[in-house]
Amino acid sequence: MGNLYKSEIVKFGKLIYERNLNAAYGGNISVRDGDKIYITPSGFNKAFLTEDDILVTDISGNILEPPINPVKPSSESKMHYAIYKSRKDVKAIIHAHPSYCVSLAISHKNLENLLPETTIVLGEVGFVPYITPGGSKLGNTVARALTKGDACIMGNHGATVVGNNLFEAFNKLELLESTAKSFVFSLLMGEVNTIPQKDVSLFIDMHKKLSL
Fold first, then answer.
1. Which candidate, 23, 191, 193, places its Cα nearest to that of 114?
2. 44 to each of 22, 40, 54, 56, how far by Cα in Å?
3. Any idea where the domains of the chain sit in the sequence?
């Protein structure tokens, strides 16, 4: 019988690929279950993962259950561990390279408060300037950016979202990318109108209550 968390990671790895939210070897996925972290391996196309490829580690990166296939944890595993240490409520993380989020990342533009639903569901979307991938500095910086919301755009890199489970994290990634797409088209049209600050504060409060 397969492992539920491994099977979910395999399923959502394929789904983010099919929805054009990720491509080639990019991105990584993890789930926390108590003291165990289930995480994708380094150098794999997420659409073609099997349960035998998923690693089980502790929050410090020590391998608890060696995978059947000889693989290494994701190159961004330090970011996942830093987020889990910072956010005790987070049980799942998806880091991916969706095209419109990446266009903002390359342009160094943060996603402004444009749509009520986006702010209610995601909270404050963080932005982290470019930091060399794979290191503790990037991981700790992204973790700090995610203390006020559940999504972060990473300069010249991609996007990271968190949730209580992988289904929730996936929905947040899809919403983030959809809003980024609308933002990019608005920039092309030459006018971007943001939500009034009084409503932003209201929606942020709603997000906090939903996260309790």
1. 193
2. 12, 8, 11, 16
3. 4-211
Contact by Cβ (8 Å): 78, 136: yes
Please say whether the beta carbons of 24 and 45 come within 8 A: yes
- pTM here is 0.96
- The alpha carbon dihedral of 204, 159, 166, 180 has a sign of positive
Q: Per the residue annotation, which of 8, 76, 124, 177 is the catalytic one?
A: 76
**76 among known catalytic residues:** yes
Give the span between the Cα atoms of 94 and 114, in whole angstroms.
23
Angle at 26 between CA 12 and CA 153, to 5 degrees: 90
Whole-number Å distance between alpha carbons of 35 and 55:
14
- 63 neighbors 81 (Cβ within 8 angstroms): no
- CB-based burial of residue 104 (10 Å sphere; 0-12 exposed, 13-18 middle, 19+ buried)? buried
| Span 117-174, pLDDT tens digits | 999 999 999 999 999 999 999 999 999 999 999 999 999 999 999 999 999 999 999 9
User: What CATH architecture does domain 4-211 belong to?
Assistant: 3-Layer(aba) Sandwich (3.40)
Is residue 94's pLDDT more than 90? yes
Percent of the chain past pLDDT 70, that is, above it, reads 99
